Amino acid sequence: MLSRAARPALRAGAVSSARPVAPNAATFATLREIEDRLKSIRNIEKITNTMKIVASTKLTRAQRAMTESRKYGQTSNTVFENAETKAMEGEDKKTLIVVASSDKGLCGGIHSGLSKCVRRMLANDPKADLVILGEKCKAQLGRSNGKNIVLNFAGVGKDIPTFSDAQAVADQISMLPTDYGSIKIVYNKFINATAYEATPIEAFSEEAIANSPNFSAFEIDDEVLANLREYALSNSLFWALAEGHACEQSARRNAMDNASKNAGDMITKYQILFNRTRQAVITGELVEIITGAAASEE
Amino acid sequence: MAFAWKASGLTYNKYLSVAARVVRRSLKDDKRLAAERRGEMELRFAKWTNGKQGDMKSVADANAAAAVESASSS
What we know:
Strand order of the largest sheet of chain B: 1-2
Pfam families (chain B): ATP-synt_Eps
Strand order of the largest sheet of chain A: 3-2-1-4-5
GO cellular component, one term (chain B): proton-transporting ATP synthase complex
Largest sheet of chain B: 2 strands, antiparallel
Helix content of chain B: 55-70%
Number of strands of chain A: 5
Radius of gyration of chain B: 16 Å
Oligomer: heterodimer
Radius of gyration of chain A: 32 Å
Largest sheet of chain A: 5 strands, mixed
CATH topology of one domain in chain A: Pyruvate Kinase, Chain: A, domain 1
InterPro entries (chain B): ATP_synth_F1_esu_mt, ATP_synth_F1_esu_sf_mt
Number of domains of chain B: 2
Family (chain B): Belongs to the eukaryotic ATPase epsilon family.
CATH architecture of one domain in chain A: 3-Layer(aba) Sandwich
Protein name (chain B): Epsilon subunit of mitochondrial F1F0-ATP synthase
Order of helices and strands of chain A: HHEHEHEHEEHH
């Protein structure tokens, strides 16, 4: 019945299509728009999903490197624990803060967490100097505390940090003209796959080591002391870099996981909207056809 | 106790990395490739003065230059 009724209307429609079809064109345009957005959201989901997979494979490697590097740091810290070394307090000695971030973003609030922690430390000790590893924290701290920065390093965090990285950084730090009372390395401590915390670890100056109460337990010559300090600094740096790297990978994995989920939500939302709009357009057309047919029958 | 490497301007870290490099290079080919990747270092750095960033330089070059300088001064 409908098909017979529709035919004259079709002819009528063909005639009417010569007239401008402004309202009709608008609904078709939105349909096309929704389709385009759907497509681009699908692409974004694909990208974030791939990044998530890449991050999770890197994460397992990073975690392994982290547990290995922890041994370096902890072993070198045992010496100071047994010697009961304490940081030099007060006086006019300056403090150096080393920030272990990385070059890459897209991993949630991991870098800004570090920056916030450093800013808090700077509020307590406004004279402290900063050495920044990685571009991200440099951008953040360079804006607020540019005057405190003495060195920054780039090229951190491309891959798992190597001990040569840590050694080169430690060399540059020990070449700084100022004699620092204590060196604090701020890094992201890996608690579990979803939690991390900006934590400082201490690297002691020669005087602090020499003044430690239980120092006589070790037989250390004065000349070797400088070597020990340099080596301990690079050990701690390596630990901080590796642990920070693992945190970054896990944070990136989580961030990309969330992004993919959000993209999935948006896709279902837009899919429903798309289907509804298409249905509405079809219904509208049918109504036009039927009313047209009814009008031409009279 | 005076060290020959210290007199020639190397820091302890530099001394270690040279020693590590020698060990890595003396490994067999298959192991050596994996091990040498662990010795790579491509950091760049910049000195800051008064809140302004200086030029980016390669850390490896700067460390080598510093070693030469301290060797000639001592």
